[in-house]
Amino acid sequence: MALSKLDNLYRAVILDHSAHPRHAGELQTGCVINLNNPTCGDVIRLTVDLVDDEIVDLAFSGHGCTISTASASMMTEIVIGKTKTEALELAHLFSEMVTGEEDERQEELGDAQFLAGVSKFPARVKCSTLAWNALKKALEQGDEGNFEGKDQASH
């Protein structure tokens, strides 16, 4: 009975992030990354505003399934205010979690830890990691000095 209530809570949090995504939209400055998941048609445009190695803001737009949208929303809440290194560590931790690896640090993922169950559905792993992969690409481009222009894009 308690497990069923917990599953319902997880489901409710995921649905809330999907229906009311946090940081949806676009920013006027920052590095822009466009990625898609051809398997199910998810598309994301992520804008990351990085100042002095800190993610000061980010936003996403596009369209995707419930898991993809919820994951993007959760990711934005977690990484704003983090350094590039911290954000990359969280992205790595998230990727491990959704592929079935357990780590005692998963609580650092905030609401995103509720997506751990995706590991039971391999086809949904790409949906859950799309935004996180866009973040990794944006931060890699930042290392190459491409954070000045808004129109930097990668597919």
List the helices and strands and how they pair.
Elements: H1 2-19, E1 31-37, E2 42-51, E3 54-63, H2 66-79, H3 84-98, H4 122-143
Antiparallel strand pairs: 1-2, 2-3
Helix pairs in contact: 1-2, 2-4, 3-4
Give a short synopsis of this structure:
By secondary structure, this protein is an alpha+beta fold. Helix content is 45%, strand content 17%.
* CATH fold category name: Sufe protein. Chain: A
Overall pLDDT level: 89
The parts where pLDDT drops under 50 for at least 5 residues are 147-155
- The percent range for strand residues is 15-25%
Helicity level: 40-55%
Q: How many domains make up the coordinates?
A: 1
CATH class: Alpha Beta
If classified by CATH, what would the architecture be?
A: Alpha-Beta Complex
Structure description:
With 155 residues, this protein is of the alpha+beta class. It has one domain (2-143): Sufe protein. Chain: A (Alpha-Beta Complex). The protein has helices at residues 2-19, 66-79, 84-98, 122-143, and strands spanning 31-37, 42-51, 54-63. The chain has a three-stranded antiparallel β-sheet with strand order 1-2-3, with helices on one face. α1 crosses α2. The longest helix is centred in the last third of the chain and has 22 residues, at 122-143. The chain starts with a helix and ends in a 12-residue tail after the last helix. Belongs to the NifU family. This is SUF system FeS assembly protein.
